[in-house]
Inverse folding.
C-alpha cells in the first residue's frame, strides 16, 4: 500500500467530541464520504452496517462511504472520541478496514490527533498550506493503518497455520493410537492394514504414512511387536507351554513364533521364560 494509490482529497470534519453518559447518535449514512470513529475515553456501542460492537478506549472504526453507522454511550460511561469525515481517491483500498474494530498503536492515535489539531472548529483549515498538511497527515494515517491491519492479518494466518498443524499432528497421533489399539484387541488375528485403517478412521495409504512417521516402522512390524509383547505377558504369568503361548499370540507353529520372538527380543521364548521370575509380571494393555 502506498500514498500514490490512496489520496485524501478533502477533510470535511475533524474534531474531538466529549459526550455525556446518556449520549445517543441515532445514525446516518454519507454518500461518497468515509468517516473515522476513534474512542479516546469511556465506552460506546458502535454499529457499522449490520455489525455491532462495544468499543473500549483506543479502538477505532472506519465507516465506509454509504454505510449506515451509529454510536452511543454505554450505561454509566461518557464517551470522548475523535470523528474525521473525508473524501478520497483510491477509496477501494480501504476495503480491508470497513466495518472492523482496530486497536491502533499510540503513534497512529497521535497522528490522528494531529489531523484534528489542523482543523478550525472541526472544519477544514482556512490556510491552504494547513489544509494540504491535514490531507497529507490523514493519508499517512490511513496508509499506516492499512499496513498495521495487513501485519495483523499475516500474524493471524501464521498463528492459524500453526494451530492447524498442531491439530493435524494430534489427529494423526490419535489415528495411530486407534490402529494400535485395534491390533492389540485382535492380537491373535492377522489384522489387515484396511481393517486397522477403518478402526482409525483414515485411509489405508494415510495410515501407512502415519505409522512410518510416528512409529518409525510399518503397521505389520507393529503387529509383530504387539504379538511378542502379548507373548511376554503370558510367559510372565506362568511358565506356560511355548506352543500354547504361540497359539494365543496368533502363531500357527511354535517354530515361527520362536523365530519372531528371537528377532524382536534377542532370545528364545523358553530362555525368556526362565528369567521372568526376576523381572516380575509383564503388563499388557489389551
Amino acid at each position: 500500500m502506498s500514498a500514490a494509490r490512496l489520496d485524501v482529497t478533502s477533510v470535511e470534519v475533524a474534531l474531538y467530541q466529549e459526550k455525556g453518559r446518556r449520549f445517543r447518535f441515532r445514525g446516518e449514512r454519507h454518500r461518497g464520504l468515509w468517516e473515522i470513529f476513534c474512542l479516546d475515553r469511556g465506552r460506546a456501542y458502535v454499529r457499522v452496517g449490520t455489525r455491532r460492537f462495544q468499543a473500549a478506549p483506543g479502538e477505532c472504526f472506519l465507516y465506509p462511504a454509504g454505510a449506515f453507522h451509529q454510536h452511543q454511550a454505554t450505561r454509566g460511561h461518557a464517551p470522548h472520541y475523535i470523528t474525521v469525515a473525508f473524501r478520497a481517491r483510491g477509496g477501494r483500498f480501504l476495503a480491508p478496514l470497513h466495518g472492523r474494530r482496530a486497536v491502533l498503536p499510540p503513534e497512529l492515535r497521535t497522528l490522528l490527533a494531529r489531523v484534528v489539531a489542523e482543523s478550525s472548529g472541526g472544519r477544514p483549515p482556512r490556510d491552504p498550506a494547513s489544509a494540504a498538511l491535514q490531507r497529507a497527515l490523514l493519508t499517512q494515517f490511513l496508509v499506516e493503518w492499512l499496513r498495521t491491519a495487513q501485519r495483523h492479518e499475516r500474524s493471524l494466518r501464521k498463528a492459524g497455520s500453526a494451530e492447524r498443524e498442531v491439530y493435524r499432528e494430534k489427529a494423526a497421533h490419535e489415528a495411530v493410537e486407534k490402529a494400535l489399539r485395534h491390533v492389540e484387541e485382535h492380537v491373535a488375528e492377522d489384522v489387515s492394514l484396511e481393517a486397522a485403517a477403518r478402526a482409525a478412521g483414515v485411509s489405508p495409504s494415510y495410515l501407512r504414512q502415519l505409522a512410518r512417521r510416528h512409529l518409525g516402522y510399518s503397521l505389520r512390524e507393529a503387529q509383530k511387536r504387539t504379538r511378542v509383547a502379548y507373548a511376554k505377558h503370558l510367559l510372565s504369568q506362568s511358565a506356560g507351554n511355548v506352543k500354547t503361548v504361540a497359539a494365543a499370540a496368533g502363531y500357527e507353529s511354535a517354530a515361527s513364533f520362536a523365530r519372531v520372538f528371537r528377532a524382536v527380543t534377542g532370545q528364545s521364548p523358553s530362555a525368556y521364560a526362565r528369567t521372568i521370575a526376576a523381572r516380575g509380571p509383564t503388563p499388557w494393555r489389551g
